[in-house]
Design a protein that fits this description.
CATH class of the largest domain: Alpha Beta
Bound molecules: flavin-adenine dinucleotide
CATH topology of the largest domain: Uridine Diphospho-n-acetylenolpyruvylglucosamine Reductase, domain 3
Radius of gyration: 22 Å
CATH architecture of the largest domain: 2-Layer Sandwich
Shape: globular
Structural class: alpha+beta
Helix content: 25-40%
Distance between the termini: 31 Å
Strand order of the largest sheet: 14-11-13-12-16-17-15
């Protein structure tokens, strides 16, 4: 096993942590690189015996501070456990080590005529283990679902260094699914070393297009009708007025116009029928086509967003906040949260809806702050997050859709009734009796929020 620290890695992709470490000489994370499952068992066993904290490290692409720890911690980089172990095209499964990056896995599957159907924007920089731990979702969730719909079985090392392997069957039999207990656990239930995932034959045909609807209310009503009546575009995105204007160019449409991007894929005739039905409904709702917007989206679908590429600019900070709303409250939630973001000092705020369910939808707010210096920007950042989380909780909106809880949402994490909290605590003890695995993660009430330093700069 290599014990060489990854000297460059001082943070994950949480904007506030990235900002914090800028020029602050932040020390590299203490990283070890297991080369085998036995290495993982041994390292975790040793750390557990000495009561020291350990956190699994995937691509470090999470944007909420899942890897942030206020106490010293050993990070187990999974990057050397990155092999595809088996591709079964008959039963449509792939077994892959947890450190495999999404892009590499997808290319290997494509060479066999198969796809995972899991295409997060971070495909090239995130790993299978990270997807499971954060309950990640890809942009084609309408057809392939989130990672919870893709995962069949895991092999994982628990907090005491013991190895577990969950049964592999087409559907869980005999009791609750233990594999699912690793989904969204943010590394607290074990270090996933490999997973068996569902795969699909590559689509025979793919179509996509973009449309402009008179208003966000019109676009959402149509999206709701699609999913509740059984029309499931592989990808469906609805943009609010502000983001639509930035996609279309200023002055191209009215203030309220809302862009919808739709994509279907699968068998030729099925795609034809589905797209035909969607197109009819769009025209009846008064939509006009703007195909260039869909083309541009596909061309840039894996690019890093501006709020991350601009993060080092003095006085600038930005972020994306994903929440999940009921259909009955989606419009109100959008308007209340967007207002809260603007009122707390954002220089720009956009939103889109991009993962749809029978009961509701995700809402993804992007905000930017331009302040006089980094400390002022960080203060506004915290104010905005606080306002969004409080507004969401007031409106019965789920505080997270797919980015996870991490450090940034921890102050608002609610774990239900005292008896439910006690039960989840006992479950966690069963997976990790000494509480060495990412001990701060998913622990309600532990507020770890980097603070602004007087005179500029921010430090945790
Ligand atoms: C530009 C950009 C776009 C993004 N787009 C999307 C998107 O479309 N959809 C989406 O869902 N997310 C998206 N994200 C967020 C991020 O990519 C996901 O949260 C991703 O799942 C994190 O994977 P990772 O390998 O980078 O994990 P890391 O960031 O390294 O770790 C995240 C958490 O997972 C745990 N973990 C990692 N590996 C393991 C393991 N083997 N066993 C147990 N726990 C483990 C860590 O301990 C940590 O708690 C995006 C991020 C960026 C920067």
């Amino acid at each position: 096993m290599s014990a060489a620290p990854l000297t460059a890695l001082a943070h994950d992709s949480w904007p506030l942590w990235v900002k914090t470490s800028a020029g602050a000489g932040e020390p590299a994370l203490n990283v070890v690189e297991p080369e085998s499952v036995e290495d993982v068992c041994r390292v975790l066993g040793e750390l557990a015996r000495s009561g020291r904290a350990a956190t699994a490290l995937g691509g470090a692409s999470n944007v909420v501070g899942c890897l942030y720890s206020s106490e010293p911690c050993t990070y187990l980089s999974m990057r050397k456990l990155n092999r595809v172990l088996a591709i079964d095209t008959d039963n449509c499964t792939v077994t892959v080590q947890a450190g495999a990056y999404g892009g590499e896995l997808e290319r290997e599957l494509n060479a066999h005529g198969m796809t995972l159907g899991h295409y997060p924007q971070s495909l090239e920089i995130s790993t299978v283990g990270g997807w499971i731990a954060t309950r990640a979702i890809g942009t084609f969730s309408g057809l392939y679902g989130g990672i919870e719909n893709t995962l069949l079985a895991v092999t994982a090392v628990l907090g005491d260094g013991s190895l577990v392997e969950t049964p592999l069957t087409p559907r869980t039999v005999g009791g609750p699914s233990v594999a699912m207990m690793f989904v969204g656990a943010e590394g607290t239930h074990g270090v996933v070393t490999s997973a068996t995932l569902r795969i699909y034959p590559c689509a025979e045909r793919h179509v996509h297009d973009a449309w402009i609807l008179p208003s966000l209310a019109d676009a959402l009503a149509l999206a709701q009708a699609f999913v509740q009546r059984g029309l499931h575009p592989a990808m469906l995105r609805v943009y609010d007025g502000a983001e639509s204007r930035s996609l279309l160019g200023a002055g191209a449409q009215g203030e309220d116009a809302s862009v919808m991007i739709v994509a279907f894929e699968g068998l030729d005739e099925v795609v034809d029928a589905q797209y035909g039905a969607a197109e009819r409904a769009l025209r009846e709702a008064g939509a006009s086509a703007c195909p260039q917007v869909a083309e541009a989206w596909f061309e840039r679908r894996y690019d890093a967003p501006a709020f991350l590429t601009r993060i080092r600019e003095p006085g600038f900070i930005g972020d994306a906040i994903d929440v999940v709303a009921w259909w009955s409250g989606a419009l109100d939630a959008h308007s209340a949260i967007a207002s809260a973001i603007r009122e707390h000092g954002a220089s720009a705020c956009y939103a889109h809806f991009s993962h749809f369910y029978h009961q509701g939808s995700s809402i993804y707010f992007i905000f930017e702050v331009q302040a006089d210096d980094d400390a002022a920007a960080a203060q506004r950042y915290r104010d905005i997050w606080r306002a969004v989380m409080q507004t969401a909780q007031r409106l019965d909106v789920g505080i997270a859709h797919h980015h996870g809880i991490g450090a940034v949402r921890r102050p608002w994490l609610q774990c239900g009734s005292p008896s439910l909290q006690a039960l989840t605590g006992r479950l966690r003890d069963a997976f990790d009796p000494r509480r060495v695995l990412a001990p701060e993660n998913l622990t309600p009430g532990v507020a770890v929020f980097p603070q602004a330093q007087p005179g500029g700069g921010v430090n945790p």
